Amino acid sequence: MATYVTSCKGNEQLVFKGYLYEFESQKLERVYWRCTEVKRGCKGRAIEDANGLREGRNSHDHPSRTMEIGVKRVLAEIKSEADIQHGQTPHAIVASAVSNLPAAIQGALPSTSAIKKQIQRRRKVFSGQHSAPSSICDFTLSDQFVLTNSGERFLLDDTGGDRDRINVFATDRNLHVLNEDTWIGRPMRYGRTRRAPLFSIDLWNQYNSTLDHLPRTNNSVEGWNRRFSSLLAAANPVIWKFIDTLKSEQTMRELKLS
Ligand SMILES: [Zn+2]
Fold first, then answer.
1. What is the DSSP letter of 208?
2. Which CATH class is domain 2-55?
3. Which one Pfam family would you cite for this protein (predicted)?
4. Secondary structure letter of residue 187 according to DSSP
Protein backbone atom coordinates (compact mmCIF):
# COMPACT_ATOMS: atom_id res chain seq x y z
CA MET A 1 0.00 0.00 0.00
CA ALA A 2 2.83 2.41 0.77
CA THR A 3 5.99 2.74 -1.29
CA TYR A 4 9.16 4.67 -0.59
CA VAL A 5 10.78 6.39 -3.54
CA THR A 6 13.79 8.66 -3.94
CA SER A 7 13.24 12.19 -5.24
CA CYS A 8 15.46 13.62 -7.95
CA LYS A 9 17.30 15.48 -5.17
CA GLY A 10 18.01 12.21 -3.40
CA ASN A 11 15.50 12.61 -0.56
CA GLU A 12 13.28 9.77 0.54
CA GLN A 13 9.63 10.23 -0.37
CA LEU A 14 6.55 8.28 0.53
CA VAL A 15 3.78 7.26 -1.86
CA PHE A 16 0.68 6.53 0.18
CA LYS A 17 -2.84 6.14 -1.16
CA GLY A 18 -1.92 7.89 -4.39
CA TYR A 19 -0.30 10.95 -2.81
CA LEU A 20 3.37 11.82 -2.62
CA TYR A 21 4.87 12.94 0.70
CA GLU A 22 8.20 14.25 1.91
CA PHE A 23 9.72 13.96 5.38
CA GLU A 24 8.56 16.73 7.73
CA SER A 25 9.62 15.87 11.28
CA GLN A 26 10.09 13.11 13.77
CA LYS A 27 8.91 13.12 17.39
CA LEU A 28 10.00 10.13 19.44
CA GLU A 29 8.81 7.07 17.53
CA ARG A 30 6.47 9.00 15.27
CA VAL A 31 7.38 10.29 11.79
CA TYR A 32 5.37 13.07 10.15
CA TRP A 33 5.26 13.22 6.37
CA ARG A 34 3.88 16.26 4.56
CA CYS A 35 2.32 16.37 1.09
CA THR A 36 4.80 17.52 -1.56
CA GLU A 37 2.16 20.08 -2.58
CA VAL A 38 2.75 21.84 0.76
CA LYS A 39 4.20 24.91 -0.97
CA ARG A 40 0.94 25.33 -2.84
CA GLY A 41 -0.88 25.26 0.49
CA CYS A 42 -1.95 21.63 0.84
CA LYS A 43 -2.22 20.55 4.47
CA GLY A 44 -2.24 16.81 3.74
CA ARG A 45 -0.09 14.76 6.13
CA ALA A 46 0.73 11.12 6.73
CA ILE A 47 1.77 9.84 10.14
CA GLU A 48 3.91 6.77 10.63
CA ASP A 49 4.37 5.04 13.97
CA ALA A 50 4.35 1.62 15.55
CA ASN A 51 0.76 1.11 14.36
CA GLY A 52 1.77 1.70 10.74
CA LEU A 53 0.78 4.54 8.42
CA ARG A 54 -2.31 6.70 8.51
CA GLU A 55 -3.47 9.94 6.96
CA GLY A 56 -3.45 13.13 9.06
CA ARG A 57 -6.54 15.05 10.09
CA ASN A 58 -6.47 17.50 7.15
CA SER A 59 -7.37 16.20 3.74
CA HIS A 60 -5.61 17.15 0.52
CA ASP A 61 -6.95 20.13 -1.39
CA HIS A 62 -6.17 18.51 -4.76
CA PRO A 63 -6.82 15.20 -6.46
CA SER A 64 -4.11 12.54 -6.47
CA ARG A 65 -2.03 12.65 -9.64
CA THR A 66 1.10 10.86 -8.54
CA MET A 67 0.42 7.61 -10.31
CA GLU A 68 -0.73 9.27 -13.49
CA ILE A 69 2.37 11.45 -13.69
CA GLY A 70 4.67 8.54 -12.84
CA VAL A 71 3.14 6.41 -15.57
CA LYS A 72 3.37 9.16 -18.20
CA ARG A 73 6.98 9.75 -17.29
CA VAL A 74 7.91 6.09 -17.69
CA LEU A 75 6.12 5.81 -21.03
CA ALA A 76 7.91 8.94 -22.30
CA GLU A 77 11.25 7.44 -21.23
CA ILE A 78 10.47 4.18 -23.02
CA LYS A 79 9.59 6.09 -26.16
CA SER A 80 12.82 8.03 -26.19
CA GLU A 81 14.87 4.89 -25.41
CA ALA A 82 13.18 3.15 -28.33
CA ASP A 83 14.31 5.97 -30.64
CA ILE A 84 17.87 6.13 -29.38
CA GLN A 85 18.65 2.44 -28.81
CA HIS A 86 17.97 1.12 -32.28
CA GLY A 87 19.84 -2.11 -31.65
CA GLN A 88 17.68 -3.02 -28.66
CA THR A 89 14.56 -5.15 -29.04
CA PRO A 90 11.28 -3.69 -27.74
CA HIS A 91 11.31 -6.42 -25.11
CA ALA A 92 14.73 -5.40 -23.78
CA ILE A 93 13.73 -1.71 -23.68
CA VAL A 94 10.52 -2.36 -21.76
CA ALA A 95 12.24 -4.79 -19.39
CA SER A 96 15.00 -2.36 -18.43
CA ALA A 97 12.60 0.59 -18.02
CA VAL A 98 10.17 -1.34 -15.85
CA SER A 99 12.54 -3.35 -13.68
CA ASN A 100 13.41 -0.67 -11.11
CA LEU A 101 10.02 1.03 -10.84
CA PRO A 102 8.07 1.25 -7.61
CA ALA A 103 5.50 -1.53 -7.55
CA ALA A 104 2.64 0.97 -7.48
CA ILE A 105 3.66 2.46 -10.83
CA GLN A 106 4.43 -0.93 -12.36
CA GLY A 107 0.89 -1.95 -11.57
CA ALA A 108 -0.59 1.14 -13.21
CA LEU A 109 1.28 0.75 -16.53
CA PRO A 110 -0.37 -0.66 -19.66
CA SER A 111 0.51 -4.30 -20.34
CA THR A 112 4.04 -4.98 -21.58
CA SER A 113 2.70 -6.43 -24.83
CA ALA A 114 0.77 -3.20 -25.47
CA ILE A 115 3.89 -1.10 -24.87
CA LYS A 116 5.97 -3.38 -27.13
CA LYS A 117 3.41 -2.97 -29.92
CA GLN A 118 3.63 0.81 -29.54
CA ILE A 119 7.39 0.66 -29.94
CA GLN A 120 7.12 -1.47 -33.06
CA ARG A 121 4.52 0.83 -34.62
CA ARG A 122 6.61 3.85 -33.80
CA ARG A 123 9.78 2.41 -35.31
CA LYS A 124 7.93 1.53 -38.50
CA VAL A 125 6.68 5.10 -38.88
CA PHE A 126 10.12 6.58 -38.36
CA SER A 127 12.07 4.21 -40.58
CA GLY A 128 9.65 4.07 -43.49
CA GLN A 129 7.59 6.93 -44.80
CA HIS A 130 9.53 9.74 -43.16
CA SER A 131 13.02 9.84 -44.57
CA ALA A 132 15.19 12.84 -43.83
CA PRO A 133 14.45 15.82 -46.12
CA SER A 134 17.39 17.03 -48.18
CA SER A 135 16.83 20.71 -47.40
CA ILE A 136 14.75 23.06 -45.28
CA CYS A 137 12.33 23.79 -48.16
CA ASP A 138 11.95 20.15 -49.05
CA PHE A 139 9.37 18.88 -46.56
CA THR A 140 5.69 19.22 -45.87
CA LEU A 141 4.28 18.62 -42.43
CA SER A 142 1.54 15.99 -42.31
CA ASP A 143 -1.16 15.96 -39.59
CA GLN A 144 1.04 13.84 -37.38
CA PHE A 145 3.43 16.79 -37.05
CA VAL A 146 1.09 19.77 -36.91
CA LEU A 147 -1.10 18.55 -34.05
CA THR A 148 -0.20 17.81 -30.42
CA ASN A 149 -0.52 14.30 -29.01
CA SER A 150 -3.96 15.32 -27.76
CA GLY A 151 -4.99 16.65 -31.20
CA GLU A 152 -4.70 20.40 -30.59
CA ARG A 153 -3.22 22.70 -33.21
CA PHE A 154 0.56 22.70 -32.60
CA LEU A 155 2.06 24.29 -35.71
CA LEU A 156 1.08 27.96 -35.28
CA ASP A 157 3.07 29.30 -38.18
CA ASP A 158 5.09 28.08 -41.15
CA THR A 159 6.71 30.82 -43.15
CA GLY A 160 7.36 28.25 -45.88
CA GLY A 161 9.60 28.30 -48.89
CA ASP A 162 13.00 29.81 -48.91
CA ARG A 163 16.17 29.40 -46.86
CA ASP A 164 14.79 31.36 -43.91
CA ARG A 165 11.83 29.08 -43.32
CA ILE A 166 10.55 29.28 -39.75
CA ASN A 167 8.07 26.94 -38.09
CA VAL A 168 6.49 27.99 -34.81
CA PHE A 169 5.27 25.20 -32.53
CA ALA A 170 3.01 25.99 -29.57
CA THR A 171 -0.63 25.67 -28.59
CA ASP A 172 -2.83 28.71 -28.04
CA ARG A 173 -3.39 27.73 -24.43
CA ASN A 174 0.33 27.21 -23.78
CA LEU A 175 1.07 30.66 -25.21
CA HIS A 176 -1.57 32.13 -22.94
CA VAL A 177 0.01 30.49 -19.89
CA LEU A 178 3.47 31.63 -20.98
CA ASN A 179 2.13 35.15 -21.24
CA GLU A 180 0.59 34.94 -17.76
CA ASP A 181 3.72 33.40 -16.22
CA THR A 182 5.88 36.12 -17.67
CA TRP A 183 3.81 39.23 -17.10
CA ILE A 184 0.89 38.89 -14.67
CA GLY A 185 1.23 35.57 -12.84
CA ARG A 186 -0.88 32.45 -13.29
CA PRO A 187 -4.03 32.31 -11.14
CA MET A 188 -3.79 29.95 -8.16
CA ARG A 189 -5.90 26.91 -8.57
CA TYR A 190 -7.65 27.38 -5.26
CA GLY A 191 -8.42 30.97 -4.33
CA ARG A 192 -8.34 34.29 -6.07
CA THR A 193 -4.69 35.23 -5.90
CA ARG A 194 -2.08 34.85 -8.61
CA ARG A 195 1.42 33.46 -8.45
CA ALA A 196 4.33 35.86 -8.86
CA PRO A 197 5.10 36.44 -12.54
CA LEU A 198 8.65 36.18 -13.89
CA PHE A 199 8.73 39.96 -14.22
CA SER A 200 6.81 41.70 -11.43
CA ILE A 201 3.91 43.87 -12.44
CA ASP A 202 5.58 46.89 -10.80
CA LEU A 203 8.60 46.38 -12.97
CA TRP A 204 6.85 46.51 -16.31
CA ASN A 205 4.12 48.84 -15.18
CA GLN A 206 6.36 51.63 -13.91
CA TYR A 207 9.58 51.07 -15.74
CA ASN A 208 8.36 49.95 -19.09
CA SER A 209 11.28 51.58 -20.80
CA THR A 210 13.80 49.39 -18.96
CA LEU A 211 12.33 46.29 -20.57
CA ASP A 212 14.48 46.91 -23.60
CA HIS A 213 17.53 46.17 -21.49
CA LEU A 214 16.36 42.89 -19.97
CA PRO A 215 18.52 39.89 -20.83
CA ARG A 216 17.24 38.01 -23.83
CA THR A 217 17.83 34.69 -22.15
CA ASN A 218 17.68 33.58 -18.52
CA ASN A 219 18.49 30.55 -16.42
CA SER A 220 15.17 28.84 -16.89
CA VAL A 221 15.41 29.13 -20.68
CA GLU A 222 18.94 27.76 -20.68
CA GLY A 223 17.91 24.96 -18.34
CA TRP A 224 15.12 23.98 -20.71
CA ASN A 225 17.47 24.03 -23.68
CA ARG A 226 19.90 21.70 -21.91
CA ARG A 227 17.13 19.30 -20.93
CA PHE A 228 15.68 19.34 -24.41
CA SER A 229 19.06 18.63 -26.03
CA SER A 230 19.56 15.67 -23.76
CA LEU A 231 16.10 14.40 -24.70
CA LEU A 232 17.08 14.52 -28.34
CA ALA A 233 20.42 12.93 -27.52
CA ALA A 234 21.76 13.75 -30.94
CA ALA A 235 23.29 16.93 -32.26
CA ASN A 236 21.59 16.75 -35.66
CA PRO A 237 18.30 14.92 -35.25
CA VAL A 238 16.16 14.20 -38.25
CA ILE A 239 13.46 16.90 -38.39
CA TRP A 240 10.71 14.33 -37.73
CA LYS A 241 12.30 13.17 -34.55
CA PHE A 242 12.88 16.77 -33.50
CA ILE A 243 9.19 17.65 -33.93
CA ASP A 244 8.12 14.45 -32.23
CA THR A 245 10.38 15.25 -29.25
CA LEU A 246 8.80 18.72 -29.12
CA LYS A 247 5.39 17.02 -29.00
CA SER A 248 6.46 14.74 -26.13
CA GLU A 249 7.82 17.73 -24.25
CA GLN A 250 4.58 19.63 -24.84
CA THR A 251 2.63 16.68 -23.40
CA MET A 252 4.85 16.62 -20.31
CA ARG A 253 4.48 20.40 -19.80
CA GLU A 254 0.71 20.08 -20.20
CA LEU A 255 0.69 17.55 -17.34
CA LYS A 256 2.59 19.93 -15.11
CA LEU A 257 0.26 22.83 -15.94
CA SER A 258 -3.01 21.09 -15.26
ZN1 LIG B 1 -1.67 17.22 -0.85
1. G
2. mainly beta
3. FLYWCH
4. B
Q: Delimit the domains of the chain by residue range.
A: 2-55, 66-127, 143-257
The values of phi and psi at residue 3, to 5°, are -130, 145
* pLDDT for residue 82: 82
| pLDDT tens digits, one per residue of 130-185 | 566 666 666 777 777 888 877 888 888 887 766 677 888 888 877 777 777 776 67
**pTM for this entry:** 0.40
End-to-end CA distance of the chain: 26
Q: Given pLDDT bands bounded at 50, 70 and 90, which one contains residue 207?
A: very low
**How far away, in angstroms, is 34 Cα from ligand 1 center?**
8
Q: What is the mean pLDDT of residues 117-130?
A: 73
Distance 58 CA to ligand 1 centre (A): 9
CA–centroid distance, residue 79 to ligand 1 (Å): 30
Contacts of 110 (CB under 8 A, 6+ apart): 75
Q: What span, in angstroms and rounded, lies between the C-alpha atoms of 179 and 187? A: 12
Q: Find, among 186, 182, 202, the residue nearest to 194 by Cα.
A: 186
Distance CA 245, CA 226 (A): 14
